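Hi Y.,

Following your request, here is the sequence exactly as I used it, all 436 residues.
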Amino acid sequence: MQSPRSLRSVRHLLCAALFGLFSCLGQAAPPNVVMILSDDQAWGDYGFMGHPTIQTPHLDRLSRESLTFRRGYVPSSLCCPSLASIITGQYPSRHRVVSNDPPLPQGMTQKEFLASGLFEEGRARMNAFMDAAPTLPKLLVQNGYMALQTGKWWQGNYAHGGFTHGMTVGSRHGDKGLDIGRKTMQPIKDFIDDAQTQGKPFMVWYAPMLPHDPHTPPERLLEKYRTKTPSIHIARYWAMVEWFDETCGELLQYLDDRKLSENTIIVYTSDNGWIQDPDKPRYAAKSKQSPYDGGLRSPMMVRWKGTIAPATEDTLAVSSLDFAPTLLKACGIPVPEQMQGIDLRDTAALRARTALHGECYTHNLVDFEQPASSLRWRWIVEGQQKLILPHAANEPEAVPELYDLLADPSEEHNLAEARPLEVERLRKIANARWKP
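Below is the corresponding structure, written out as C-alpha coordinates. Let me know if you'd prefer a different format.
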Protein backbone atom coordinates (compact mmCIF):
# COMPACT_ATOMS: atom_id res chain seq x y z
CA MET A 1 0.00 0.00 0.00
CA GLN A 2 1.30 3.43 -0.91
CA SER A 3 2.02 5.94 1.82
CA PRO A 4 -0.10 9.13 2.11
CA ARG A 5 2.97 11.13 1.06
CA SER A 6 3.49 9.11 -2.12
CA LEU A 7 -0.22 9.33 -2.94
CA ARG A 8 -0.07 13.11 -2.57
CA SER A 9 2.92 13.18 -4.91
CA VAL A 10 0.99 11.23 -7.53
CA ARG A 11 -1.96 13.58 -7.16
CA HIS A 12 0.23 16.64 -7.67
CA LEU A 13 1.82 15.09 -10.76
CA LEU A 14 -1.63 14.41 -12.20
CA CYS A 15 -2.67 17.96 -11.38
CA ALA A 16 0.42 19.34 -13.13
CA ALA A 17 -0.44 17.25 -16.16
CA LEU A 18 -3.99 18.61 -16.18
CA PHE A 19 -2.88 22.20 -16.04
CA GLY A 20 -0.32 21.42 -18.71
CA LEU A 21 -3.22 20.30 -20.87
CA PHE A 22 -4.79 23.75 -20.53
CA SER A 23 -1.56 25.26 -21.86
CA CYS A 24 -1.43 22.84 -24.80
CA LEU A 25 -4.97 23.86 -25.71
CA GLY A 26 -4.00 27.52 -25.53
CA GLN A 27 -6.15 28.11 -22.45
CA ALA A 28 -5.01 29.51 -19.14
CA ALA A 29 -6.02 27.41 -16.13
CA PRO A 30 -8.75 29.21 -14.14
CA PRO A 31 -7.21 31.07 -11.19
CA ASN A 32 -7.85 29.86 -7.68
CA VAL A 33 -9.34 32.31 -5.18
CA VAL A 34 -8.40 32.80 -1.53
CA MET A 35 -10.22 35.37 0.63
CA ILE A 36 -8.50 36.29 3.91
CA LEU A 37 -10.81 38.17 6.26
CA SER A 38 -9.64 39.53 9.58
CA ASP A 39 -12.22 39.78 12.36
CA ASP A 40 -12.41 42.97 14.47
CA GLN A 41 -9.09 44.65 13.64
CA ALA A 42 -8.36 48.39 13.49
CA TRP A 43 -7.26 49.78 10.13
CA GLY A 44 -3.89 50.93 11.44
CA ASP A 45 -2.96 47.78 13.36
CA TYR A 46 -0.46 46.36 10.86
CA GLY A 47 3.24 46.87 10.31
CA PHE A 48 2.66 48.01 6.71
CA MET A 49 0.11 50.57 7.93
CA GLY A 50 2.71 52.07 10.27
CA HIS A 51 1.83 50.67 13.68
CA PRO A 52 4.84 51.33 15.93
CA THR A 53 4.54 48.12 17.97
CA ILE A 54 2.42 45.40 16.38
CA GLN A 55 4.38 43.07 14.10
CA THR A 56 2.62 41.53 11.10
CA PRO A 57 5.45 40.29 8.85
CA HIS A 58 3.29 37.95 6.73
CA LEU A 59 0.63 40.53 5.96
CA ASP A 60 3.41 43.06 5.35
CA ARG A 61 4.79 40.71 2.72
CA LEU A 62 1.32 40.23 1.22
CA SER A 63 0.97 44.00 1.01
CA ARG A 64 4.30 44.36 -0.81
CA GLU A 65 3.19 41.75 -3.35
CA SER A 66 -0.32 43.16 -3.80
CA LEU A 67 -2.28 46.01 -5.22
CA THR A 68 -2.82 47.54 -1.78
CA PHE A 69 -5.46 50.14 -0.99
CA ARG A 70 -4.76 51.86 2.30
CA ARG A 71 -8.15 53.65 2.31
CA GLY A 72 -10.60 50.78 2.08
CA TYR A 73 -14.04 50.81 3.69
CA VAL A 74 -16.61 48.19 4.61
CA PRO A 75 -20.21 49.46 4.29
CA SER A 76 -21.25 48.40 7.79
CA SER A 77 -19.29 48.12 11.04
CA LEU A 78 -21.03 44.96 12.27
CA CYS A 79 -19.79 41.43 11.52
CA CYS A 80 -22.79 39.70 9.93
CA PRO A 81 -23.91 42.40 7.47
CA SER A 82 -20.30 43.24 6.59
CA LEU A 83 -19.47 39.64 5.68
CA ALA A 84 -22.74 39.34 3.76
CA SER A 85 -21.76 42.42 1.74
CA ILE A 86 -18.33 40.99 0.95
CA ILE A 87 -19.75 37.73 -0.39
CA THR A 88 -22.66 39.29 -2.33
CA GLY A 89 -21.05 42.52 -3.54
CA GLN A 90 -24.14 44.40 -2.34
CA TYR A 91 -25.01 46.98 0.28
CA PRO A 92 -26.88 45.61 3.32
CA SER A 93 -30.08 47.37 2.26
CA ARG A 94 -29.91 45.37 -0.99
CA HIS A 95 -29.08 41.88 0.34
CA ARG A 96 -31.21 42.57 3.47
CA VAL A 97 -28.92 40.89 6.02
CA VAL A 98 -28.54 44.19 7.86
CA SER A 99 -28.07 43.03 11.48
CA ASN A 100 -26.36 40.29 13.44
CA ASP A 101 -29.51 38.75 14.89
CA PRO A 102 -33.30 38.54 14.37
CA PRO A 103 -35.70 40.92 16.16
CA LEU A 104 -35.57 40.59 19.94
CA PRO A 105 -39.04 39.64 21.24
CA GLN A 106 -40.49 42.00 23.81
CA GLY A 107 -39.81 40.86 27.36
CA MET A 108 -36.90 38.57 26.42
CA THR A 109 -33.24 39.14 27.20
CA GLN A 110 -30.74 38.49 24.41
CA LYS A 111 -29.45 35.45 26.30
CA GLU A 112 -32.97 33.99 26.61
CA PHE A 113 -33.65 34.73 22.95
CA LEU A 114 -30.49 32.95 21.74
CA ALA A 115 -31.64 29.77 23.51
CA SER A 116 -35.18 29.87 22.13
CA GLY A 117 -36.92 28.37 19.14
CA LEU A 118 -37.92 31.89 18.09
CA PHE A 119 -34.27 32.67 17.51
CA GLU A 120 -33.83 29.68 15.22
CA GLU A 121 -36.95 30.67 13.26
CA GLY A 122 -35.59 34.19 12.89
CA ARG A 123 -32.20 33.00 11.72
CA ALA A 124 -33.88 30.81 9.10
CA ARG A 125 -35.63 33.88 7.71
CA MET A 126 -32.32 35.75 7.58
CA ASN A 127 -30.64 32.76 5.90
CA ALA A 128 -33.30 32.90 3.19
CA PHE A 129 -32.05 36.36 2.23
CA MET A 130 -28.65 34.84 1.49
CA ASP A 131 -30.26 32.00 -0.47
CA ALA A 132 -31.88 34.58 -2.73
CA ALA A 133 -28.70 36.55 -3.43
CA PRO A 134 -26.07 35.83 -6.07
CA THR A 135 -22.88 35.13 -4.12
CA LEU A 136 -19.28 34.77 -5.17
CA PRO A 137 -19.01 31.04 -4.30
CA LYS A 138 -22.34 30.23 -6.00
CA LEU A 139 -21.13 31.77 -9.24
CA LEU A 140 -17.69 30.18 -9.04
CA VAL A 141 -19.18 26.74 -8.35
CA GLN A 142 -21.50 27.13 -11.35
CA ASN A 143 -18.32 27.55 -13.38
CA GLY A 144 -16.52 24.44 -12.17
CA TYR A 145 -14.97 25.56 -8.88
CA MET A 146 -14.91 23.88 -5.50
CA ALA A 147 -15.52 26.34 -2.63
CA LEU A 148 -14.66 26.00 1.07
CA GLN A 149 -16.08 28.00 4.00
CA THR A 150 -14.06 28.27 7.21
CA GLY A 151 -14.30 30.63 10.17
CA LYS A 152 -17.02 33.21 10.73
CA TRP A 153 -20.26 32.45 8.91
CA TRP A 154 -23.63 33.69 10.13
CA GLN A 155 -26.03 32.22 7.56
CA GLY A 156 -26.45 28.73 9.02
CA ASN A 157 -25.06 25.87 6.96
CA TYR A 158 -22.25 26.79 4.59
CA ALA A 159 -24.45 25.73 1.67
CA HIS A 160 -26.56 28.89 2.11
CA GLY A 161 -23.63 30.83 0.68
CA GLY A 162 -23.11 28.45 -2.22
CA PHE A 163 -20.02 26.69 -0.84
CA THR A 164 -19.48 23.06 -1.80
CA HIS A 165 -17.51 22.34 1.37
CA GLY A 166 -17.50 23.96 4.80
CA MET A 167 -16.95 23.77 8.53
CA THR A 168 -20.06 25.62 9.73
CA VAL A 169 -23.21 23.51 9.72
CA GLY A 170 -25.84 25.59 11.48
CA SER A 171 -25.03 27.79 14.47
CA ARG A 172 -25.35 31.54 14.92
CA HIS A 173 -21.92 32.57 13.67
CA GLY A 174 -19.61 29.66 13.00
CA ASP A 175 -19.73 26.55 15.28
CA LYS A 176 -16.91 24.21 14.16
CA GLY A 177 -15.78 26.81 11.64
CA LEU A 178 -14.42 28.88 14.50
CA ASP A 179 -11.70 26.27 15.09
CA ILE A 180 -9.87 27.48 12.00
CA GLY A 181 -6.77 29.47 12.83
CA ARG A 182 -7.21 29.20 16.59
CA LYS A 183 -6.89 25.39 16.68
CA THR A 184 -5.96 24.15 13.20
CA MET A 185 -5.35 25.03 9.55
CA GLN A 186 -5.66 21.44 8.37
CA PRO A 187 -9.17 21.66 6.84
CA ILE A 188 -7.90 24.24 4.35
CA LYS A 189 -4.83 22.19 3.47
CA ASP A 190 -6.92 19.04 2.98
CA PHE A 191 -9.41 20.92 0.81
CA ILE A 192 -6.69 22.39 -1.40
CA ASP A 193 -5.15 18.94 -1.85
CA ASP A 194 -8.57 17.49 -2.68
CA ALA A 195 -9.22 20.19 -5.30
CA GLN A 196 -5.81 19.50 -6.82
CA THR A 197 -6.56 15.78 -6.93
CA GLN A 198 -9.81 16.47 -8.76
CA GLY A 199 -8.13 18.92 -11.10
CA LYS A 200 -10.55 21.70 -10.16
CA PRO A 201 -9.94 25.36 -9.39
CA PHE A 202 -10.85 26.29 -5.81
CA MET A 203 -12.06 29.10 -3.59
CA VAL A 204 -11.17 29.35 0.11
CA TRP A 205 -13.05 31.63 2.54
CA TYR A 206 -10.61 32.07 5.45
CA ALA A 207 -12.43 34.19 8.05
CA PRO A 208 -11.05 33.06 11.43
CA MET A 209 -12.33 34.54 14.67
CA LEU A 210 -9.02 36.39 14.95
CA PRO A 211 -8.10 38.78 16.46
CA HIS A 212 -11.73 38.82 17.68
CA ASP A 213 -12.31 38.31 21.39
CA PRO A 214 -11.91 36.25 23.50
CA HIS A 215 -8.37 37.58 23.44
CA THR A 216 -6.55 34.40 24.39
CA PRO A 217 -3.23 34.54 22.52
CA PRO A 218 -0.40 32.06 22.96
CA GLU A 219 1.59 32.94 26.07
CA ARG A 220 4.77 33.47 24.02
CA LEU A 221 3.05 36.28 22.10
CA LEU A 222 1.44 37.80 25.17
CA GLU A 223 4.85 37.96 26.86
CA LYS A 224 6.22 39.76 23.81
CA TYR A 225 3.69 42.59 24.18
CA ARG A 226 3.10 42.62 27.94
CA THR A 227 5.99 45.01 28.57
CA LYS A 228 5.15 47.28 25.62
CA THR A 229 1.95 48.74 27.12
CA PRO A 230 0.64 49.36 30.66
CA SER A 231 -2.72 47.84 29.63
CA ILE A 232 -2.99 44.06 29.75
CA HIS A 233 -6.09 44.35 27.53
CA ILE A 234 -4.14 46.13 24.81
CA ALA A 235 -1.27 43.65 25.17
CA ARG A 236 -3.67 40.75 24.65
CA TYR A 237 -5.23 42.38 21.61
CA TRP A 238 -1.85 43.17 20.03
CA ALA A 239 -0.78 39.56 20.60
CA MET A 240 -3.98 38.36 18.93
CA VAL A 241 -3.20 40.46 15.85
CA GLU A 242 0.23 38.84 15.52
CA TRP A 243 -1.29 35.40 16.08
CA PHE A 244 -3.68 36.05 13.21
CA ASP A 245 -0.74 37.15 11.07
CA GLU A 246 1.08 33.89 11.80
CA THR A 247 -1.89 31.88 10.56
CA CYS A 248 -1.95 33.95 7.36
CA GLY A 249 1.72 33.13 6.93
CA GLU A 250 0.99 29.41 7.27
CA LEU A 251 -1.69 29.63 4.58
CA LEU A 252 0.53 31.63 2.21
CA GLN A 253 3.39 29.18 2.75
CA TYR A 254 1.14 26.24 1.92
CA LEU A 255 0.24 27.84 -1.40
CA ASP A 256 3.95 28.37 -2.06
CA ASP A 257 4.79 24.79 -1.14
CA ARG A 258 2.11 23.47 -3.50
CA LYS A 259 3.34 25.74 -6.33
CA LEU A 260 -0.06 27.44 -6.40
CA SER A 261 0.86 31.04 -5.66
CA GLU A 262 1.25 32.10 -9.30
CA ASN A 263 -2.27 31.07 -10.24
CA THR A 264 -4.10 32.02 -7.06
CA ILE A 265 -5.76 35.40 -6.51
CA ILE A 266 -5.63 36.45 -2.86
CA VAL A 267 -7.76 39.25 -1.46
CA TYR A 268 -7.63 40.65 2.05
CA THR A 269 -9.70 42.92 4.28
CA SER A 270 -11.25 43.02 7.76
CA ASP A 271 -14.97 42.71 8.45
CA ASN A 272 -14.92 45.79 10.69
CA GLY A 273 -12.66 47.77 12.95
CA TRP A 274 -11.78 47.49 16.63
CA ILE A 275 -10.29 49.99 19.05
CA GLN A 276 -9.27 48.25 22.25
CA ASP A 277 -10.50 49.78 25.50
CA PRO A 278 -7.40 49.95 27.75
CA ASP A 279 -9.44 49.45 30.92
CA LYS A 280 -11.57 46.43 30.07
CA PRO A 281 -11.78 43.58 27.53
CA ARG A 282 -14.17 45.46 25.26
CA TYR A 283 -13.98 47.76 22.29
CA ALA A 284 -13.80 51.50 22.81
CA ALA A 285 -16.10 54.14 21.41
CA LYS A 286 -15.88 55.08 17.72
CA SER A 287 -14.95 51.58 16.61
CA LYS A 288 -17.05 48.43 16.09
CA GLN A 289 -20.77 49.16 15.49
CA SER A 290 -20.08 52.87 14.93
CA PRO A 291 -20.16 55.05 11.78
CA TYR A 292 -16.57 56.21 12.37
CA ASP A 293 -13.41 55.14 10.56
CA GLY A 294 -12.44 53.12 13.64
CA GLY A 295 -15.28 50.76 12.75
CA LEU A 296 -15.42 51.09 8.96
CA ARG A 297 -11.97 51.58 7.50
CA SER A 298 -9.68 48.68 6.56
CA PRO A 299 -6.74 48.19 4.21
CA MET A 300 -7.64 46.05 1.21
CA MET A 301 -5.33 43.97 -0.95
CA VAL A 302 -5.47 42.03 -4.20
CA ARG A 303 -2.52 39.75 -5.10
CA TRP A 304 -2.18 37.84 -8.35
CA LYS A 305 1.49 37.20 -8.93
CA GLY A 306 2.67 37.93 -12.44
CA THR A 307 -0.70 39.38 -13.46
CA ILE A 308 -1.54 42.30 -11.14
CA ALA A 309 1.39 44.64 -10.60
CA PRO A 310 2.09 45.38 -6.91
CA ALA A 311 1.39 48.98 -5.94
CA THR A 312 0.20 50.97 -2.95
CA GLU A 313 -2.67 53.40 -3.37
CA ASP A 314 -3.29 56.07 -0.73
CA THR A 315 -5.61 58.47 -2.48
CA LEU A 316 -8.45 56.25 -3.63
CA ALA A 317 -11.13 54.93 -1.30
CA VAL A 318 -12.31 51.43 -2.20
CA SER A 319 -15.10 49.26 -0.83
CA SER A 320 -15.33 45.63 0.23
CA LEU A 321 -18.23 45.45 -2.24
CA ASP A 322 -15.56 45.59 -4.95
CA PHE A 323 -14.06 42.16 -4.18
CA ALA A 324 -16.83 39.99 -5.65
CA PRO A 325 -16.97 41.74 -9.05
CA THR A 326 -13.17 41.97 -9.18
CA LEU A 327 -12.77 38.25 -8.60
CA LEU A 328 -15.55 37.24 -10.97
CA LYS A 329 -14.10 39.31 -13.80
CA ALA A 330 -10.62 37.97 -13.10
CA CYS A 331 -12.03 34.45 -13.39
CA GLY A 332 -13.81 35.26 -16.66
CA ILE A 333 -17.29 35.04 -15.14
CA PRO A 334 -20.03 37.62 -15.88
CA VAL A 335 -20.87 39.91 -12.96
CA PRO A 336 -24.58 39.93 -11.99
CA GLU A 337 -26.24 43.31 -12.27
CA GLN A 338 -27.19 43.13 -8.58
CA MET A 339 -23.55 43.54 -7.55
CA GLN A 340 -22.72 47.15 -6.75
CA GLY A 341 -18.93 47.25 -6.66
CA ILE A 342 -16.33 47.84 -9.37
CA ASP A 343 -13.34 45.90 -10.70
CA LEU A 344 -10.36 47.02 -8.63
CA ARG A 345 -8.08 46.34 -11.60
CA ASP A 346 -9.96 48.96 -13.64
CA THR A 347 -8.00 52.17 -13.15
CA ALA A 348 -10.52 54.25 -15.08
CA ALA A 349 -13.39 53.03 -12.89
CA LEU A 350 -11.40 53.80 -9.76
CA ARG A 351 -10.57 57.30 -10.94
CA ALA A 352 -14.20 57.91 -11.88
CA ARG A 353 -15.45 57.04 -8.40
CA THR A 354 -16.10 60.25 -6.49
CA ALA A 355 -17.62 58.93 -3.25
CA LEU A 356 -18.15 55.87 -1.07
CA HIS A 357 -21.31 55.12 0.88
CA GLY A 358 -22.31 52.92 3.78
CA GLU A 359 -25.08 51.96 6.19
CA CYS A 360 -24.90 50.98 9.86
CA TYR A 361 -27.76 49.14 11.53
CA THR A 362 -28.98 47.93 14.91
CA HIS A 363 -27.47 44.75 16.35
CA ASN A 364 -30.88 43.02 16.23
CA LEU A 365 -33.24 43.50 13.32
CA VAL A 366 -36.31 45.63 13.90
CA ASP A 367 -38.40 44.30 10.98
CA PHE A 368 -37.49 41.48 8.58
CA GLU A 369 -39.26 43.04 5.62
CA GLN A 370 -38.18 46.65 6.15
CA PRO A 371 -34.36 46.95 6.29
CA ALA A 372 -34.53 50.72 6.82
CA SER A 373 -36.40 50.17 10.10
CA SER A 374 -33.09 48.95 11.59
CA LEU A 375 -30.99 51.83 10.25
CA ARG A 376 -28.89 53.86 12.68
CA TRP A 377 -26.66 55.89 10.37
CA ARG A 378 -25.80 56.38 6.72
CA TRP A 379 -22.40 57.78 5.80
CA ILE A 380 -20.59 59.13 2.75
CA VAL A 381 -16.88 59.72 2.14
CA GLU A 382 -15.91 62.09 -0.67
CA GLY A 383 -12.19 62.73 -0.94
CA GLN A 384 -11.14 63.55 2.61
CA GLN A 385 -14.59 64.67 3.74
CA LYS A 386 -17.00 62.44 5.59
CA LEU A 387 -20.65 63.07 6.43
CA ILE A 388 -22.56 60.92 8.94
CA LEU A 389 -26.37 61.07 8.74
CA PRO A 390 -28.27 59.65 11.75
CA HIS A 391 -31.64 57.94 11.30
CA ALA A 392 -34.03 59.59 13.73
CA ALA A 393 -36.04 56.46 14.51
CA ASN A 394 -33.04 54.69 16.05
CA GLU A 395 -30.73 57.64 16.87
CA PRO A 396 -33.21 60.32 18.01
CA GLU A 397 -30.64 62.46 19.84
CA ALA A 398 -27.95 62.37 17.16
CA VAL A 399 -27.09 65.19 14.76
CA PRO A 400 -25.30 65.17 11.39
CA GLU A 401 -21.52 65.02 11.66
CA LEU A 402 -19.01 66.33 9.12
CA TYR A 403 -15.29 65.56 9.38
CA ASP A 404 -12.10 66.45 7.56
CA LEU A 405 -10.38 63.06 7.65
CA LEU A 406 -7.00 64.45 6.61
CA ALA A 407 -6.82 67.06 9.37
CA ASP A 408 -8.86 65.06 11.89
CA PRO A 409 -8.41 61.30 11.29
CA SER A 410 -9.87 60.36 14.68
CA GLU A 411 -13.06 62.33 13.92
CA GLU A 412 -13.05 64.52 17.00
CA HIS A 413 -14.16 67.87 15.53
CA ASN A 414 -17.64 67.99 14.02
CA LEU A 415 -17.70 70.68 11.31
CA ALA A 416 -21.39 70.33 10.43
CA GLU A 417 -22.56 73.57 12.08
CA ALA A 418 -19.67 75.55 10.59
CA ARG A 419 -20.19 74.17 7.05
CA PRO A 420 -23.96 73.77 6.50
CA LEU A 421 -23.73 74.14 2.71
CA GLU A 422 -21.25 71.26 2.53
CA VAL A 423 -23.52 69.13 4.72
CA GLU A 424 -26.44 69.72 2.36
CA ARG A 425 -24.35 69.06 -0.74
CA LEU A 426 -23.12 65.72 0.58
CA ARG A 427 -26.58 64.86 1.93
CA LYS A 428 -28.03 65.22 -1.58
CA ILE A 429 -25.39 62.88 -3.01
CA ALA A 430 -26.04 60.35 -0.25
CA ASN A 431 -29.83 60.58 -0.69
CA ALA A 432 -29.54 60.06 -4.45
CA ARG A 433 -27.90 56.66 -3.83
CA TRP A 434 -30.12 55.60 -0.95
CA LYS A 435 -32.89 53.26 -2.11
CA PRO A 436 -34.05 51.30 0.97
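Confidence is low (pLDDT under 50) at residues 1-26.

Thanks again,
Q.
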